[in-house]
Design a protein that fits this description.
Rossmann fold, 211 residues, 5 helices, two-stranded antiparallel sheet
Length: 211
């Protein structure tokens, strides 16, 4: 194991898994893969969507708006989601099968009622930091391996922003699942490739010793 590598587990929460308020198809399938990988790393970090009730990204906060429609917000286009991961609700909790004891800390995002936060590093204005980059720097982390939900939103933005702050980023594809909204998965894969994100799978990662 390399001391300068961290495993970042993105938003593996009940609301993003089958039966949840914003379920990603087959989302719970990432849990056993992530649980197998986590012991390879000395530093494990969890991210958690943690919205106040009435968050601006919820369709119910905009009269007449349909879930999955898009509106203009001061920080750019915003998909309007079903209410999900509301602070303190069961849906905001981590999937019950996810082993969380190894986590060094949890990054909660989307806590500002006026702005969404897909990325583990920045809110959706691409400027306001979550604090993760500074924490990783303090720990001497130069490489992050990412897994979680959903490939084309929170994982995508986290991976691209990881590169933006100067980290090497590896994405474990079989430890992620996508929403794939209007071709968003293909767009995400193209963007991550262009940003220099390395794509791999759990078997190759374990065999390579990249952790």
């Amino acid at each position: 194991m390399r001391d300068d590598t961290a495993f970042v587990i993105v938003d593996v929460q009940t609301d993003f898994c089958p039966g949840g308020a914003l379920a990603v198809a087959d989302g719970d399938a990432v849990v056993p893969v992530i649980n197998r990988l986590a012991p390879l790393f000395r530093t494990v970090i969890l991210t958690q969507d943690w919205h106040p009730a009435g968050h601006a990204s919820f369709a119910t906060s905009h009269a007449g708006a349909a879930p999955f429609s898009t509106i203009a917000m001061p920080y750019g286009p915003q998909v309007l989601w079903p209410d999900h991961c509301v602070q303190g609700t069961p849906g905001a909790g981590f999937h019950p099968g996810l082993e969380t004891d190894r986590a060094r800390f949890v990054v909660r995002k989307g806590t500002d009622p006026a702005i969404d936060s897909y990325s583990a590093f920045f809110e959706n204005d691409h400027t306001t930091p979550t604090g993760l980059a500074g924490a990783l720097s303090d720990l001497g982390i130069r490489h992050v391996v990412m897994a979680g939900l959903a490939t084309d939103f929170c994982v995508r933005w986290s991976a691209v922003d990881g590169r933006r702050v100067g980290l090497a980023v590896t994405l474990v594809e079989d430890a992620c699942r996508a929403i794939d909204l209007d071709g968003s998965l293909d767009a995400a894969l193209r963007e991550m490739h262009a940003a220099g994100v390395t794509l791999t799978d759990s078997t190759a990662l374990a065999a390579s010793g990249a952790a």
